[in-house]
Design brief:
This protein has 149 residues and is mainly α. Helix content is 87%, strand content 0%.
């Protein structure tokens, strides 16, 4: 019986020492993966809603959905380090270029030029390369015609 009590006490001590050490190790080794997952999940859900509104709703609601998405992305970037910055810049460029196309449809040339420039700057951040207006139109057209899963 004395031997059983020693093993039980040893297991209990290992639990109290091992649990905090294991928690600390997990935070330091897997924390980046959790940040990437949570950012990607939050952004993908918001993008799915904004994409649906852009493709299915009228121009005013599509524009508002894309503006909300860009605003959310700016808030996310201001609050925390972006886990996958290149993908983030591509997503922002797509939303901004959609806003440019919607402004062009509405006949607002000044807004079109501003959104186009912002989209080009976002892709420049991702690729360190400046894209032409034609390339930006192709970028969005290809993204919008790709099947969604």
């Amino acid at each position: 019986m004395k031997r059983l009590a020693k093993y039980a006490l040893l297991k209990l001590a290992a639990l109290f020492v091992g649990s905090p050490l294991g928690f600390w190790y997990a935070q330091n080794s897997m924390g980046d993966g959790a940040a990437i997952f949570s950012q990607t999940l939050a952004l993908s859900q918001y993008e799915t809603l904004a994409d649906l509104q852009y493709k299915q709703a009228d121009t005013a609601h599509g524009t508002q959905a894309q503006l909300d998405l860009v605003n959310f992305m700016n808030q996310l970037e201001a609050r925390q380090k972006i886990a996958v910055p290149r993908a983030f810049d591509y997503d922002r460029a797509r939303a901004l270029m959609r806003l440019a196309l919607l402004a062009e449809q509405a006949g607002n040339d000044a807004a079109f030029q501003q959104y186009l420039h912002d989209a080009q700057a976002s892709l420049d951040d991702a690729d360190k390369k400046w894209y032409s207006e034609k390339a930006m139109r192709t970028f969005v057209t290809v993204a919008d015609t790709r099947p969604q899963y």
